[in-house]
Every structure is written in C-alpha cells, then in structure tokens.
Amino acid sequence: MEAYLDNSATTRVAREVQELMVQVMDRDYGNPSSMHRKGMEAERYVREAADRISGILKCKPKELIFTSGGTESNNMALIGTALAARRAGKHIVTTVLEHASVTAPLQFLREEGFEITQLPADGRGTVRLEELKAALRPDTILVSVMYVNNEIGTIQPVEEIAKLVHTACPKAVFHVDAIQAFGKLPIRPKRQGIDLLSVSSHKFHGPKGVGFLYCGEQVHLHPIIFGGGQQRDMRSGTENVPGIAGMGLAAELAYRDLAGKQEHMNHLRRHFLEGIHQLEGLSVNGWDETADGDAAVEKRAAHIVSVSVQGVRSEVLLHALEDRGVYVSAGSACSSNHPAVSRTLKAVGVPGDLLESTVRFSFCPETTMAEINYALEALGSVLPVLRRFVRK
Amino acid sequence: MPRSAVYCQQKRSRGADTIMAAPKAGRFQRNPHAPQRSVLTAKRKPGRGYHYGRAEGGPFSELLEKKMKYQAFLIKYAEIGVKGKNRYIFEDALVKRIGQVLAPVEGDFIVTKENGRIYAIAGEEMDFDEAVDALQHVFGIAWICPVVQLQDEGFDVLKQKVVDYMRSCYPDGGFSFKMQCSRARKNYPVCSQDMNALIGEAVLEAVPTSHVDVHKPEILVCVEIRDHNINLYSSRIPGAGGMPAGTGGRGMLLLSGGIDSPVAGYMVAKRGVTLEAVYFHAPPYTSDRAKQKVVDLASQVAKYAGPIRLHVINFTDIQLYIYEKCPHEELTIIMRRYMMRIAETLAKENGCLGLITGESIGQVASQTMQSLVCTNAVCTLPVFRPVIAFDKQEIVDVSLKIGTYETSILPFEDCCTIFVAKHPVTRPLLHVIERSEKKLEEKIDELVKIALDTDEVIECR
Predict the structure, then answer these.
(1) CATH 3.10.20.30 applies to domain B3-241
(2) Do A322 and B284 touch (CB under 8 A)?
(3) Does A324 reach chain B within 8 Å, measured CB to CB?
(4) For residue B458, is it left (φ>0), alpha (ψ between -120 and 50) or beta?
(5) For the segment A333-346, what is each residue's pLDDT rounded down to a tens digit?
(6) Per CATH, which fold does A15-255 belong to?
(7) Given CB 3.0 to 4.6 Å as the disulfide criterion, which of A233, A248, B351, B358 pairs with B264?
(8) Is the full-model pTM beyond 0.95?
C-alpha cells in the first residue's frame, strides 16, 4: 500500500484538470495575444479561469495577475509594493514564520535600504496582535503575513491583523501569503481587508508552474517583469494558457463542497492525532485540538500536522517511511554536512534536540482513512528499529 | 643572393642575437653553428620548449574563427610509441576508443591508423569544439593537432596555400615561427630542407612583421608530404595523456559520494584500466538521491574511462549488526574491512585484478597508516590508492579538472558518516580489531552473502 501524505509539497493533478489542459495544448493552442480566431479561443480560457477564481474570491477578474507560481506572486507583491511606495516610506513588517519566497525578497529589499521588522510568534505559531500594534509606524508601507503556515499549519488571525493595519497605517498595503490556505479555507479579500494575496496552483490539484496574485484595484503595484505588456502591463510574457485554464478549474473543484472536505480532513486529523499520541516520544507542533481543546480547531489548518520524533533524525525517518510507501516531508532539510534548521520550528520554541527530528504529514481531500491508518502503523513499526541505532 | 639564402641569413642572425643576449649559453658559444643545423634537421622531440602555435593550452580563439578550415585531426601519442612488438594492441585500442567518442559528434569521422599515426578525418563539416572536447577525454592521446589536408598541386601552389593558411590563422602577424617540412613520399621534387627555406621565405615576405626563430618559435609550422595528400598544421592541443582505455586490465573501484574516489578511479583509468565500481548504499540512512549522485559521478568518470558497471550493495544490515556487536569507536574501521571484503569478492567474480580506493594517508581516522594496515589485511588482491600521498587540495584540483567536484560536494550523507563515533580509533591494532570481529561470527557471513546476492548493477556511461 502507498500513502502520499505530502500534499503540502504538491498534489496530484485532478483528472478533469488534466483533460482540460490536454485540450488546450492539443486543440486550442493559440497565443491569447494573437489577433486571429486561434488567439481569441486561447484568450477565452484565460478569461474563464479569471472568472472562476474571481467568483471564489468575490473580486473582479481584472484584479488577478497570473504568475508562474507562489514564489513569483510573493516576489511581485513585496518588491512591486516596495517599488511603488518607496517615497511614502521604507518600513515593512512581517513575521518570523514566513516562507523563503517572502524572506528572501525582503532580504533583498533590506539590502536596498528598506527596514524590515520581524514579528515573533507564540508557542503555537500565532502572531500576537499587541506586538504588531507596537511595530506599526507612520512610515510602514507594507505588512506581509502568511495565512496558513506551511510547516505547522497555524492560521493567522488575518482579519484582526488587517483591521489593525488599516486603522494604524491607512496607506500601508496588507499582503497575505495564502499558498497553503487557498482551496482549504474560504477567502474573501475585500471583506477580510486583504490587499494582495498570493496563490499557487499545484497545492490544490492544479498544475505546477502557475499561480496568481490577487491585487485589489486600490493597490498601487509596480511590475517586476517587463516585456510585451501582457496582463495590463503588470506581468509581461505570453500567458501559460493550459496552466491557467487548469488552475481555474482546479480552484473551482477545490471550493466545491468545501465544508464537506473540511469535515473529512478534520476527521482524518483527529484520528491521526489520537494515533500519534499513543506512540511514545512523539509531540505535535502548533495547535493540537486533542491537547488544546476544541477552541484550537479555528486556529489551525486541518491538512498539516507537524510531528517531532524523539531520538530519530527526520531524514532517516522519512526514508524509512518511504521504504514502506509512506511519503512525508522533513521539517527541515538537513544532513550532517549542512545543518539547516527550520526558522519556523525554532520560532515556536521546538527544543534544539527535536529541530532535526521533525516531520510533516499533510493531507488532501482525497486522503483516505485507510491511508492514515497505514501511515500510523508504518510509523509504529519503524520507530523502535530506528531508535535502536543512533549516532553516539 | 638567392632567396633561400636570405632565409638562412635571417635565421643565422637570429641565432647570433640569441647567443649575445644569453651570456650563460656556454654550450652555444663553443660552436655557434652546430645547434642551429641540428635543430633544423633534427626530429622534433617533445618537451624541448617548442610552441606549436599560440593555441596551446589556452582558449582556441584564433582557431574558433577559422575552424572551418580543419578537416582532420592528427592524433599524437607519447607513451605508446616506446612499446615494442605489441604496440599495435595499444594503437588499435586507441583507434577504437577515438571512434567511440567521435561517433556522436557532428562530422562523420573516419578514424584510421597509417604508418604509425592516427588520423580522425571528418567526412563532412565538423563541430570543431565538440570534437576537440571529445578527443580530450580519450586516454592515450598526448596531442591533438587540427590539420588542413591539401592535394598535391605542385610546390608553388603549396607555398601559396601555406601563406594563405598563416595569414588567416594569425592575421595579426608579429609572430616568430619555424618551418618543419618532411616528405614521407621521397619522390617529391623538393627536399625537406629546401622546402623549409622556400616556404619560410614565402611566409616572411607575405607577413613582413613575422620573423624566424629556430630555437623557440611561437609557431611551429608543419608540412608533411604524404602519399596521397599533404598535411598542414601549426597548433597542438594537449590531450588527456595516459594509456588507451581497455589495455590495462580491470579494476574494482570503491566509489563513495566524496571527492577522492572519483579522482582515484580517473587516475587508474588513465593508465588504461577498465573500471568497475561498487557503492555501499544504506537505506533508509542514505537516500536515493545519494545513490543518484554516485551514478552521476560514475558517469562523469566514464566519459574518460569508458562505460563503468556500478554495483550497488545494500549495506544497512551489515552496518547495523556491527553497530550492535562491536565497540563503537571501531565501527568505521570494521565497516571498511567488510566493504573491502565485499569489493574483493565482487572483483574476483568480475575478473578484476585489483581494488582501487580514494584513500589518502591521514585524511580521516580510517585512513591513518595504522587504519590502512587493518583494512588492507583482509585483501588478497592488490589495493591501488593513487591519491595516497595527495593533499586534499591536490585531489580537489584534479576533481575540478575532470568535472566531478560539483557533484561530489552535493550534501548527501554517505554510509561512512551516519553512525560515525565522535572519537573513532585512529591507531587501531590489527589483533584488537580481529578480536572484535569475532563477535560477529554468528550472522555476518550470511549477511554478507545476502548483500552480495542482492547486488544491483547499473551501467554508467
């Protein structure tokens, strides 16, 4: 048996999405910028995808910029805002829990003369609002927060943060990295006060190499890719039509019966957590409803479970599980030569000896109870063996 | 004064300048004329400080512009030349290997051996850079000379062709040169010495900024009159050296993912040895990516050495068994002894005559003299350790040259490091290690047998 529990890394492309993409590549392969009919046909797919996604977000289709994925969306949001607002101020606020596609562009901006404030988080990975309040300044131009953390699944109180930001700094732009949230949580940027929202397609059964940035029409953004002037000059380059069409359909499928899917994944999660707690020397990072009570349900995404395993290195555990057909990801990529400890895990206070012993299980709506049971069983059987042999 | 005399005059005066400028050149002063004549007529000897054109060793920029001109390569080999009656074995192996590496290169090459030389002649327009790169991966080649092949249309035409060649190859002028003509076809109307003088004169007249230097010419222009055509060449590109692949028997390389073992494999393969390799894989402690890295390394070495058969041995159970039974600080040394045993068994099964490792004295605990004695004690085949006295930096330099460094430094763990003790023994005593190994007697033979039976073979090319 096989259990693919690494859905936060990537997901299988839905069958319908594959078929649509084949149709675009095989039959309607035109360039949406071409003047002739073939071009029109291709453009229709792009429009249709924009309509589908804007229907989900309750925004206007022209507020969407199609990109090559989450990394580009984040880069465009951060660098684009900083370029557009550099005369208004040079202060940017973010958290310690961000993905590299946010921290790296911010590092670049720091070198370009911007000032970056990183907010700490509590032991469950939630940002404290009072610290955010203290960090905001008149010259703050941008606040960037990750909606659902990719390593521990914590949900940030995006609405409260938005309210705070917009009252304290009316001119500041609020960016949300929703790469792990889209398709899993209902998102309404306008109602929630989100100005910029990054999304990647392959996290919700769409194809790789495509994503989008929601950019509210009130936001002034500077393009970071220049050329033929496609997408209203915001993102030049021929649109990835099959990818965009596929993403549009995948988004629609992801939000079809969202409540039912959430319930399913909550159910899987509860069962999985109970199984984890029965094994010795395992601890869950982030909010854990079986320990923190039902109030925690609102504060974490159902599909991500981070587990620290006493006395076993994550890379070894990963390969041992892989041997049994269980696919997970290591909390942090590391080896004896290049220890690269996860900043997120450090920030939520995971003890030093567990930093290199943390793995992430992530589910999708297609994950079955049988897979969960199989994974628990595999985990239970490899742990005693692995614990017997450790570096002394 | 006849024209050829002008050439000789010039030559002589250059010689005199050299003598005056070099007060210590005592042996020239004794008989100023003798060395000139002998150099003129002597066969070229390598390492005498001749420069065959400016292309040597550097970027081939001037050749790049003119690469259209060359239709063939003259392959010069150094060491094979001193072989006796079995020389043909080496030459044939070299011809075969050159044919193999040139097969995928644009140019439809025909590789021939005639009169003790090897030619690779392009049947169509060739991709010069790709062909040179391919040839530089062939062991046994000392020099690669790109050749212009001419038809015999009379001596005057030949002279003009040489002038054209020099003008187009060295358009800036200002070079010093020396003619080196030879005629294998002895009925050619002009003798070699006269050709030297006459063609040299024509070049001098055509390129007034050039001059002749018979001692240290920047460009050695070779004209060879052969039975069916005339070869013209002036540059030589260094080859990989060594002996042709497949002429030196078979060796079993212990290949890890590190920097040293691919270099060791390369160095032994350079002497004509065909390589087989063995890699010890320890899942789940080492990942499939670590294995892929070793396959990539073997493939890179195979570009020089020819196809390598890589044996992947699952070493986990043996390693864990040693871990359980033996003192921890002796783990690495005992592990290595079992690796050597397994490698030797594989070597014997596959007709290999020796083992090859990348060990270097004192580099790590398991490579001290004492440790080497302990690991060596289990082998009956000779163990070749070509980098034994190399510093790390010297090994790195070779790995950079052969293109394995970038792959070697990818951060995947290999099986030697996973359970390594904080303070492993650095001066193990053989009898102590042997006593520790006694504790393994119960199961180890069976585990080794299983490991050998589950050997996975990957062809790397």
Answers:
(1) no
(2) yes
(3) no
(4) beta
(5) 444 444 567 888 98
(6) Aspartate Aminotransferase; domain 2 (3.40.640)
(7) B358
(8) no
